[in-house]
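Bumping my old thread because nobody answered last time. Still need a sequence for this structure:
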């Protein structure tokens, strides 16, 4: 209620201050006290015109930036491409992310939380959410 009263008072003062002269109260008289006479004429401001043109002196060659290193993920440089004869030697070095979650369910005893993702099924301890198995 206090804010509403303050808002109404503010709007009333604002409207009173912004009222046109024709809406003056009847007990007020408006009399001019001074007349304004022009004292100076305004001169146009000059426009700027370019006096010189810039010409490129050399072309910039982009400097290559070093690629960021993937810290903690070593990867060997293969000396031969992957083929059907050596495909059984391929091993997973790293996995970034855990995939997209598709479904989450509790185990019947409530001790484990199973999360089915796009990469596989994760089992978590329901108390502290520590990953138990993938």
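Sorry it took so long. Here it is:
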């Amino acid at each position: 209620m206090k804010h509403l009263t303050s808002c109404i008072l503010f709007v009333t003062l604002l409207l009173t201050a912004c009222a046109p002269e024709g809406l003056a109260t009847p007990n007020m008289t408006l009399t001019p006290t001074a007349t304004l006479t022009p004292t100076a004429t305004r001169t146009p401001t000059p426009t700027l015109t370019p006096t010189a043109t810039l010409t490129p002196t050399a072309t910039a060659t982009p400097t290559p930036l070093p690629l960021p290193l993937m810290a903690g993920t070593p990867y060997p440089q293969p000396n031969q491409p992957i083929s059907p004869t050596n495909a059984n030697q391929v091993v997973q070095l790293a996995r970034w992310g855990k995939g997209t979650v598709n479904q989450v369910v509790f185990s019947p005893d409530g001790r484990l939380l199973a999360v089915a993702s796009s990469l596989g099924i994760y089992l978590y301890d329901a108390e502290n959410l520590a990953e138990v198995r993938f």
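DSSP finds one helix and four strands in the chain. Let me know if any region looks off to you.
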